[in-house]
Amino acid sequence: LPSRLDTMLTNQVLLLLLMLSVLWPSSALPFAPGNIGKLFGMAESDGRILQRSKRGWMWNQFFLLEEYTGNDHQYVGKLHSNMDKGEGNVKYVLTGEGAGNLFLIDEKSGDIHATKRLDREEKAMYTLNAKVLDRNTNAELEADTEFNIKIHDINDNAPKFEKDIYFASVPEMSEVGTSVVTVTATDADDQTYGNSAKLVYSILQGQPYFSVDSENGTIKTALPGMDREVKEHYQVVIQAKDMAGQMGGLSGTTTVSITLSDVNDSPPRFANHSFRVTAAESTDIGGAIGRIKADDPDVGRNAEMEYSIVGGHDIFNIITDQTTQEGVIIIKRALDYESKRDYEFRVEVKNTYLDARFIHGLQFKDYATVKVTVEDVDEPPVFTRNPYIIEVHEDTAAGSFRRYSIDRHTDLERLFNIDSVNGTITTLKALDREMSKWHNISVVATEINNPLQTTRVPVFIKVLDVNDNAPEFAMSYDTFVCENVKAGQLIQTISAVDTDEPLVGHKFVFSMSATNPNFTIDDRQDNTANILTRRGGFSRHEMSVYFLPVVISDNDYPIQSSTSTLISCNSEVLPFSDGLTTGALVAILLCVIILLMIVVLFAALRRQRKKEPLIISKEDVRDNVVSYNDEGGGEEDTQAFDIGTLRNPEVMDANKLRRDIIPEMLFPFRRTSPIKDNADVRDFINGRLQENDADPTAPPYDSLATYAYEGSGSLAESLSSLESAATEGDQEFDYLGNWGPQFKKLAEMYIGKSPDRET
Q1: pTM here?
Q2: What is the distance, to the nearest Å, from the Cα of residue 48 to the centroid of all Cα atoms in its chain?
Q3: Fewer CB atoms < 10 Å away: N or C end of the chain?
Q4: Contact, 474 vs 495, CB < 8 A?
Q5: Tens of pLDDT, residues 520-532
């Protein structure tokens, strides 16, 4: 074929020609002998088509798809000779690779079949020989001819990577596009035919940190500023897919473990910028008195540090421990507690190795303040002067000396004593600075030979502080924790006090005596501490009181500490907490509504009771029963009311305005009048009824009116004594005893005064 056609096109053309050779007679085909030259465009010579020697075979190559899944034998192709006239006299014989077992040929028709599934990856091409014999004489009609059966590839193999897991590293803070590693996959399918072996790479896991080149599998960084101190290890999953990545292609994956290597991009930093160190004054020169440390998140040589004292120091020096990267403070000159007790200096820390790419804009050094407190050590006494010069008069008598004493009026508690000979003052009792800081005494010196010669001098004794008191809580704390509290919740801030007074001030350290599963303590470094919850889910029913021992230590010498117990009570959750159900809220709301209705109803009743009565004037007592709590002035009292008004109801007809009020009935007892016809009372009531119906000013509601008019035919008549006889002897009051218990008191008053009974 012409060279411009690729191999794939050649194979397809040959396969098509093979199929056509079976369907049409050889003479009708364009590729029959004599026509092949025309088909392939052979050049003509002298205007004539070039002829070649006549051959009987049609093809010398067949094509067969691999992995055939049919139940019958797979058809390969057909051999046909021009000597075969279709009369059955021709016999086709097949020899070569696989002939007879893998490939079978029909002796009469020349059809070739494959008996087994073929795998191109095992063998891509088979070479066979065919010849044509006379069936009757076995004479060779066609010379032995060689041909090939080529196995066509299908996409039956997935891509495979060389390793299941790759390991790679890339420096942190690398620029985007920095190459990390290249992973390669292979496909056993035919790379020269179709897209079965054309691979495309993609990333399944690891975005947005990394990307992969789709053609060659090179993994590159895709995110700027990746910091090893934030995340050091990454797992990246790469996929290789054949069929050029199209749907239906087979794929394989591999895992790439990528580690960010360290660069010096983090400067050293002190966690605390203030350190306290104590040193005994007896420490040898060159001895270490303390260590300080800065933190550098880098590793290796990028984390190596160097310490130094800013401006240097006469007494102290600092060196670097290369193993622990700590700064060791040592003594350059001897310390003296009596001369100076406190020192302070600044320490600088910096990296020994710097990366020029990251020093811009960052200060790769840090500073901290170190305070050194010198501790006193019991040393031998030292003379204040060396030598002493004493002056004595030459005429001083032998054995002359003085006697010393303390004026006990200035030392009532007898705390001190003095040697009468040499004047040495000593203590008789232990002194307590917290009770009294100063003691003022008077020392008297008297001449032995002349007691009248005395002198007095005041002595001021200052009691120096010794750290003999442990710190304690500044106050009594009432601590509560809610049931719905979360872990890490602040529930109390505590502080401490100490009666001692160190020279450098108080510095308390708060801690726990043992690990507590419920609470933790956070020392704030300012003599206070926060009490935090370590967990949530506190339940009042499980435990309502927790005891939290807190250890408080000072920073003086010798160190004093005390353990105080903080009591934490478990308080209930607020009613409207997050855990309240909807049903409970509805029930509470209904209760509130009912309570409001009761309050409103009660207020309405009280308002109705307090309504202003219709009778405004207290002096208008007509048609009403008015009760009094006093007994009145007897018969001579005529100011209470007009008795004539009660007996003559016509007098009240002049006033047409009626004012009603609900009367207070003191005596519900009723007594039926023996008079059957109470015409005057009936007329009185009817008149009042008509007057009320016709009165336009009457109230629009029904009301109950009670009148005191008893009628002119009452058996009791008037109970008043205003119209009684002149003397009590003219009256008989025995009938009052028959009126019932309501008139018992009245009967006792009048019957008891009867003249007949007085005798």
Answers
A1: 0.41
A2: 97
A3: C
A4: yes
A5: 999 988 889 999 9
Q: How would you list the strands of the sheet with 288-295, edge to edge?
A: 269-270, 288-295, 326-331, 316-321
Residues above pLDDT 70, as percent of the chain: 72
pLDDT for residue 494 is more than 50:
yes
Question: What string of DSSP letters covers 376-433?
Answer: P-------SSSS------TTPPTT--EEEEE-GGG-TT--EEE-TTT--EEESS---T
Give the largest Cα separation in the chain, rounded.
196
Higher pLDDT, 313 or 631: 313
Structure tokens at 656: 């047409």
**What is the distance between the terminal CA atoms of the chain, rounded to a whole angstrom?**
176
Distance (Å, whole) CA 575 – CA 483 = 12
Residue 162 neighbours by CB distance under 10 Å: 10
- Pick 599 or 63 by higher pLDDT: 599
- 735 in helix, strand or coil? helix
Strand partners, 96: 128
The two structure tokens encoding residue 336: 């003296």
Nearest to 174 by CA among 99, 74, 260, 107: 260
**In this predicted structure, what is the pLDDT of residue 423?**
83
d(CA 432, CA 438): 10
Element (H, E) at 249: none
Q: Of 523, 522, 492, 489, which is closest to residue 507 (Cα–Cα)?
A: 523
What are the DSSP calls for 631-669, one per residue? ---GGG--SS--HHHHH-GGGGGG-----------S---
Report the b/e string of 542-572 with b at 16+ CB within 10 A.
Answer: eeeebebebbbbbbbeeebebebebebebee
Gap between the Cα atoms of 634 and 746, Å rounded: 12
Per-residue pLDDT tens digits for 466-475: 888 889 888 8
Residues 361-382, mean pLDDT to the nearest whole number: 84
Higher model confidence: residue 285 or residue 359? 285
In this prediction, what percent of the chain has a pLDDT beyond 90?
A: 23
User: What one-character DSSP code corresponds to residue 29?
Assistant: S
Surface-to-core class of residue 345, CB atoms within 10 Å of its CB (0-12 exposed, 13-18 middle, 19+ buried): middle
Task: State how far the Cα of 156 lies from the Cα of 199, in Å rounded to an integer.
Answer: 14
Q: Please state, in angstroms and rounded to a whole number, the distance separating the CA atoms of residues 379 and 713.
A: 129
Q: Who contacts 177 (Cβ-Cβ below 8 Å, separation ≥6)? A: 220, 221, 222
- HSE of 441, CA atoms in CB hemisphere, 13 A: 21
Residue 329 makes CB contacts below 8 A (sequence gap 6+) with 277, 288, 289, 290, 291, 292, 316, 317, 318, 370, 372
C-alpha dist (Å) from residue 680 to 70, 162, 347, 706, 712: 134, 134, 123, 16, 7
Query: For residue 293, which of 265, 264, 278, 273 has the smallest C-alpha distance?
Result: 273
Query: Under a CB-based contact definition with an 8 Å cutoff, are residues 695 and 656 in contact?
Result: yes
Write down the pLDDT at residue 321: 94
- Range 721-745 average pLDDT: 65
